[in-house]
């Protein structure tokens, strides 16, 4: 009598414990999730452009920017809801950084096209300086996550990946701000 009861309790504990584990996400799941998010965001953008709200003074360009960033943030949010493990958080941050890097290049090119020819070299110089800054910041963050400074732990990987993402994200916002001022 005790053995079946112990087995039942053990099986129940194991099954409920396993239900709490994060799920591994394969590439097909990621692609489907991204496609769904992009379709929804693009549909919302079309609605905003076609029928702006009475109080909506946002330009088409700003709405496009809002849509671009929403796609990245929503994808990251949904991904973390499925795989909230340390590895999942790190991968999500690095993938989001890649997406923001694409936006960085998009808005840099837009700004470059908008400036007069004589003013473009300044933007090129500023961007080169930012790239040097970004690279040195990444090195500094890497140094500070070493065990000798941080005390170690898996959390350091998340901190580093988050800092990596935030540098690029902040630069995208800066470039977009430059564009909005023109």
From TrEMBL:
Classification via Gene3D superfamilies: 1.20.1270.180
Q: Where is the signal peptide?
A: 1-19
Q: What InterPro entries does the record point to?
A: LprI-like_N
Query: Pfam families per the record?
Result: LprI
Kindly state which keywords UniProt assigns to this record, in alphabetical order: Signal
Presence of the UniProt keyword RNA-binding in the record: no
Lysozyme inhibitor LprI-like N-terminal domain: residues covered = 85-175
Q: Please identify the protein, giving its name as recorded.
A: Lysozyme inhibitor LprI-like N-terminal domain-containing protein
Q: Which organism is it from?
A: Pedobacter caeni
């Amino acid at each position: 009598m005790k053995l079946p009861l112990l087995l039942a309790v053990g099986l129940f504990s194991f099954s409920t414990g396993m239900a709490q584990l994060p799920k591994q996400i394969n590439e097909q799941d990621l692609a489907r999730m991204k496609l769904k998010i992009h379709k929804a965001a693009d549909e919302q953008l079309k609605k905003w452009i076609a029928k702006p709200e009475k109080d909506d003074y946002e330009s088409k360009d700003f709405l496009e920017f809002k849509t671009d960033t929403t796609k990245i943030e929503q994808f990251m949010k949904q991904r973390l809801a499925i795989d909230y493990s340390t590895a999942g958080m790190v991968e999500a941050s690095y993938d989001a950084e890649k997406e923001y890097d694409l936006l960085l290049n998009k808005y840099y090119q837009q700004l470059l096209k908008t400036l007069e020819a004589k003013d473009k070299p300044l933007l090129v110089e500023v961007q080169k300086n930012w790239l040097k800054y970004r690279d040195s910041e990444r090195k500094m963050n890497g140094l500070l996550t070493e065990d000798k400074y941080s005390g170690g732990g898996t959390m350091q990987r998340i901190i580093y990946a988050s800092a990596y993402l935030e540098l690029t994200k902040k630069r995208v916002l800066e470039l977009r701000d430059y564009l909005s001022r023109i």
